[in-house]
C-alpha cells in the first residue's frame, strides 16, 4: 500500500506562521508609532516637506481666477404709477387692449421676468458670442498663435452648449427678497476684464429690456392710433387717449432714463491681484502639508508592522 502523500503546506512548522499572517495579526499601539516617529523624525520631516512642495507646485501652476461683484436693484415700475394706470385704463376698455396683444405691464417688467433674462441661456449665448468668450472658457483647447482650436483626435471643438454651462458656473446671481438687492458675481482669469464683463452683463441685459419695452410701446401706439381713428364713442376715445399717453411715456422713459430695468448701486471693480479667489492658496498648502505628514506616518506605521513580523518569525 502506498504511503501517505506529502502535503507541501504541512511542511511548514506549526510554530512558524508565515510573515504575511504575522503582519496581518500584529497591530502596533500608539506608543510604538510615537517611538518610531521620534526615532525616524527626519523621514517624517522629509515626507511633510514633500507635501509642502507639492502644494507649492499646485499653487504656482494653477490658473488664478478672480471674483468680482456688482450690486443692483430691479426697477419694476419706471413710470411712477405707469403700470397701475395702464391696468386701470385697460380694464375700463373691456379687454380691448388684451385682444390687440398689447403689453401693458410695468415699464421695466416684473422683477422675476427681468432676472429671468439674466439667468437665461439665450442671453448667455448672445453675451458669449458678442464678447468672443469661447477661447477664454476653453483655454487648453485654443491655440493663441493660430487663432484656431487645437486639432484633437479624441475630442471636437467645444460647443456653445458646453460654453453656456461653463459660463453659468462662473456667473452667480443672488437676490435678497427682503431688501430687493441683487448681487451678480463673476469668476474670471483676467481680473480687469472680469470686472468689465460683469458690468457689461447687466448693462447689456438692461439695454435688451429697454429695446423690447420701446418696441412693444411703439406697436401699441400704432394700434391705439388706428383705434382712435375708427372710434366714434367719446368715452372710448378718451380711454384710448389715456392708454396712448401711457405708451408715449414708456417710450420717453426708455429713451431718456440712464437705468431702465436694473439700477446699479455698486458697479464691479477690478479685484486685488494678490488675492485671487482660486486657487485657495492657504487651503491647498494646509491640505498638502497634512497629506505629506499623514503619508509619512502611514509609511512608518507600515514599517513597524513588518519589522515586528520579522522579529517574531
Q: Notable features of this structure?
A:
313 residues, alpha+beta, Bacterial polysaccharide co-polymerase-like, 4-stranded antiparallel beta sheet, two-stranded antiparallel ribbon, 12 helices, 6 strands, 10% strand, disordered N terminus
User: What is the name of the CATH architecture of the largest domain?
Assistant: 2-Layer Sandwich
What's the number of structural domains?
2
The largest beta-sheet arranges its strands as 4-5-1-6
| Major sheet | 4 strands, antiparallel
| Highest-level CATH class of the largest domain | Alpha Beta
CATH fold assignment of the largest domain = Bacterial polysaccharide co-polymerase-like
> How confident overall, as mean pLDDT?
78
- N- and C-termini, Cα separation: 38 Å
Sum up the overall morphology in one term: elongated
Tell me the radius of gyration.
35 Å
Amino acid at each position: 500500500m502506498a504511503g501517505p502523500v506529502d502535503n507541501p503546506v504541512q511542511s511548514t512548522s506549526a510554530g512558524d506562521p508565515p510573515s504575511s499572517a504575522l503582519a496581518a495579526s500584529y497591530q502596533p499601539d500608539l506608543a510604538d508609532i510615537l517611538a518610531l516617529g521620534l526615532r525616524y523624525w527626519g523621514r517624517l520631516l522629509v515626507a511633510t516637506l514633500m507635501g509642502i512642495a507639492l502644494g507649492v507646485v499646485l499653487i504656482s501652476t494653477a490658473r488664478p481666477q478672480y471674483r468680482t461683484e456688482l450690486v443692483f436693484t430691479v426697477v419694476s415700475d419706471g413710470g411712477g404709477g405707469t403700470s397701475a394706470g395702464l391696468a386701470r385704463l385697460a380694464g375700463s376698455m373691456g379687454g380691448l387692449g388684451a385682444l390687440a396683444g398689447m403689453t401693458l405691464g410695468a415699464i421695466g417688467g416684473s422683477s422675476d421676468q427681468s432676472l429671468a433674462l439674466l439667468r437665461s441661456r439665450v442671453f448667455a449665448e448672445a453675451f458669449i458670442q458678442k464678447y468672443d468668450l469661447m477661447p477664454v472658457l476653453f483655454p487648453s483647447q485654443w491655440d493663441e498663435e493660430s487663432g484656431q482650436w487645437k486639432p484633437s483626435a479624441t475630442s471636437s471643438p467645444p460647443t456653445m452648449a458646453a460654453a453656456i454651462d461653463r459660463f453659468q458656473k462662473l456667473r452667480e446671481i443672488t437676490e435678497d427678497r427682503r431688501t430687493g438687492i441683487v448681487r451678480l458675481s463673476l469668476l474670471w482669469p483676467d481680473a480687469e476684464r472680469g470686472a468689465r464683463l460683469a458690468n457689461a452683463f447687466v448693462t447689456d441685459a438692461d439695454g435688451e429690456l429697454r429695446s423690447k419695452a420701446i418696441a412693444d410701446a411703439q406697436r401699441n401706439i400704432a394700434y391705439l392710433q388706428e383705434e382712435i381713428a375708427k372710434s366714434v364713442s367719446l368715452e372710448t376715445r378718451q380711454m384710448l387717449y389715456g392708454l396712448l399717453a401711457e405708451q408715449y411715456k414708456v417710450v420717453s422713459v426708455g429713451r431718456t432714463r440712464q437705468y431702465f430695468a436694473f439700477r446699479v448701486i455698486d458697479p464691479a471693480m477690478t479685484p486685488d491681484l494678490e488675492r485671487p479667489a482660486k486657487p485657495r492658496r492657504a487651503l491647498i498648502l494646509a491640505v498638502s502639508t497634512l497629506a505629506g505628514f499623514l503619508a509619512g506616518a502611514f509609511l512608518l506605521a507600515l514599517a513597524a508592522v513588518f519589522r515586528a513580523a520579522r522579529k517574531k518569525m
